[in-house]
Design goal:
With 79 residues, the protein is mostly helical. The chain has one domain. It has helices spanning 3-35, 45-49, 58-71. It is elongated and about 60 Å long.
Amino acid sequence: MTPREYEALISRKQVEQRGEDYRTAAIICATYNVWRDSKYPPLTPEDILGKQEKMQTVEDMLVMVKQLHVAMGGKPPEV
């Protein structure tokens, strides 16, 4: 299995997991909303799961690699 194939498998599994998490949150919300007091707003799955984190950009990765390089005793990059 190549690294690219392995990455595709991991990505597919993460998508499946997000779907399962969303379904679970929807069931929790439905149960809560049936029994909630009318003075409280209804819950949504996003209220339980929170905001989805954005993907790390290439620039963010480069900054992190440079910081790790210096932390491990490497020479700081020239700016």
